[in-house]
């Protein structure tokens, strides 16, 4: 699909999106990566064949965040604050919205440093695993800017408001081990086995009925901000759909066959 974002889909419905723009170490701005991601997400949403998406990068860096060259361009006097506001809304801010609304689960396979917007990209995913020597940072304040891509919305939902405030207000770099302790990533793996582990996790998800997985993801998203009564109404609607699915009927039938088999086996009560 793109020279800087490789799109691969296997027979299990696992899509792997691999960032590959060495000149800026996979910076999300000033590189075309945002547009490439949006095209890939549109394809995933409209083809309805994907079950899980893995986001990773080639080389030893996940993403360096924002392009410094692009920041230098934005300092020029011909760019007003109003112009920059529109650039953000019509540029990188489309990515968190697209990923948030993506129906299938997403896994960030963090192959190296994830800094600034690169770290936020990982936080936009549903699950994260990382190599043992990865470094991460919500580093915007170090450059006198703020997380304009939604990082201040995603991060507290991962680590809580106090830890999120510490990370965002200091801009400190932290290790993959600290990310594991704080719940940002769910596991650390050797670099050589990162994609194997990411695919194994994806396969465990892809092995479940796809529509149930999509609805479960939607419920997890909805639960972040809805009232309990409203959430339960959505649960009831989704469950009514799920109960009438052929996958549910097959699962119940398989369970009942196994149950009858246990009862009829010698020595059963």
Topology as a string of helices (H) and strands (E)? EEHEEHHHEEHEEHHEHEHHHH
Main β-sheet description: 6 strands, mixed
Say how many strands there are: 10
Computed Rg: 21 Å
CATH class of the largest domain: Alpha Beta
- The CATH homologous superfamily of the largest domain is called 2-enoyl-CoA Hydratase, Chain A, domain 1
Structure annotation, total helices: 12
Structural class: alpha/beta
Helical fraction equals 40-55%
**Overall mean pLDDT:** 93
Strand content: 15-25%
Number of domains: 2
Distance between the termini: 59 Å
Q: Judging by the overall fold, what is the CATH architecture of the largest domain? A: Alpha-Beta Complex
Runs with pLDDT <50, length 5+? none
Shape: globular
Trace the largest sheet across and list its strands.
Answer: 1-2-3-5-7-10
How is the CATH topology of the largest domain named? 2-enoyl-CoA Hydratase, Chain A, domain 1
Structure summarized in a few sentences:
By secondary structure, the protein is an alpha/beta fold. The protein has helices spanning 33-47, 68-74, 81-90, 94-101, 117-124, 151-159, 161-170, 176-181, 194-206, 210-222, 228-243, 246-264, and strands at residues 5-9, 14-19, 52-57, 61-63, 106-110, 113-115, 127-131, 135-137, 173-175, 187-189.
Structure description:
By secondary structure, the protein is α/β, with parallel strands linked by helices. It has two domains: 5-206, Alpha-Beta Complex (2-enoyl-CoA Hydratase, Chain A, domain 1), CATH 3.90.226.10; 210-264. Helices cover 50% and strands 16% of the residues. The longest helix has 19 residues, at 246-264.
């Amino acid at each position: 699909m793109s020279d800087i974002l490789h799109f691969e889909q296997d027979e299990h419905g696992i899509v792997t999106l691999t960032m590959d723009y060495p000149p800026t170490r996979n910076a999300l701005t000033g590189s075309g990566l945002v547009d490439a991601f949006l095209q890939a997400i549109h394809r995933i949403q409209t083809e309805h064949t994907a079950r899980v998406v893995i986001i990773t990068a080639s080389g030893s860096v996940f993403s360096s965040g924002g392009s410094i060259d692009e920041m230098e361009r934005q300092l020029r006097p011909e760019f007003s604050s109003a112009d920059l506001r529109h650039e953000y809304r019509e540029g990188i801010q489309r990515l968190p919205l697209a990923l948030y609304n993506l129906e299938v689960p997403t896994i960030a396979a963090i192959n190296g440093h994830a800094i600034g917007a690169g770290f936020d990209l990982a936080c936009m995913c549903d699950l994260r695993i990382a190599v043992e020597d990865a470094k991460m940072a919500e580093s915007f304040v170090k450059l006198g800017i703020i997380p304009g891509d939604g990082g201040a919305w995603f991060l507290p939902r991962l680590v809580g408001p106090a830890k999120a405030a510490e990370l965002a207000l200091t801009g400190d770099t932290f290790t993959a081990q600290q990310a594991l302790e704080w719940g940002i990533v769910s596991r650390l793996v050797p670099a050589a086995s990162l994609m194997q582990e990411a695919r194994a996790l994806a396969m465990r998800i892809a092995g479940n009925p796809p529509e149930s997985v999509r609805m479960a993801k939607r419920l997890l998203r909805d639960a972040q901000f809805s009232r309990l009564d409203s959430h339960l109404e959505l649960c009831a609607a989704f469950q009514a759909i799920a109960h009438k699915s052929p996958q549910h009927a097959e699962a119940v039938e398989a369970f009942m066959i196994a149950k009858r088999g246990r009862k009829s086996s010698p020595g059963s009560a």
